Amino acid sequence: MGNSNSSNKISAQDRAILDMKNQRDKLHQYQKRITVLTDRETAIAKECLARNDRKRALLALRRKKYQESLLAKTDAQLAQLEQLTSQVEFALVQKDVLFGLQQGTQVLNTIHKEMGGIEGVEKLLGENEEARAYQEEVSQMLAGHLSNQDEDEVEDELETLRQEVQGPVSLPDAPIGLPPGAEQEPESDLAKQKARARARARERTAVPA
């Protein structure tokens, strides 16, 4: 009985480790493929900014951030599962590991659907009805999937790319002195009091004629 239980535990752990290795291999494959897409999305954002199309440039960068966040999420999850399976009492964490593997599979499937090929990325630049419908679909899909930090990072990247494409914003020089027609502000009450005090002091010390 004891040997049988031990054999079952090892078998379950081995299966979990094999599943994680398969997920890791698939993740690495997606990382290589998605890098091609994200590089193109960055280039598309620059092209849009060059023609002052900020909305579409932002959409390209938001999609890029979403793809990167999916990969990062799966990578971190697999690292956590590897730590769990390395524990001696695998039976105590087996349920968590299996649940984590299921979640990992779901995320990988989401990444697979999101890949869409380079054709989908090129639609972000399209002007025809089909391309616009695709852009609207991507925009709706991204709604609520990016954190506030992700959105801030996207805005920062957009501004960095804008400066690369259009150069820094030149602000007008600050005006010197008062603008034409402006009047000098009246003295404050405190300044008036000090002036009156100095005048009285001069009167007291003045020598009579």
Automatic annotation (TrEMBL):
This is Putative SNF7 family protein (AFU_orthologue AFUA_1G09220). Residues 200-209 have a biased composition (Basic and acidic residues). It comes from Aspergillus calidoustus. Its main location: membrane. Residues 165-209 are annotated as: Disordered. Belongs to the SNF7 family. It comes from the Eukaryota. One of its GO terms (biological process) is late endosome to vacuole transport via multivesicular body sorting pathway. Gene3D superfamilies: ESAT-6-like (1.10.287.1060). One of its GO terms (cellular component) is multivesicular body. It is found in: Endosome membrane. Pfam families: Snf7.
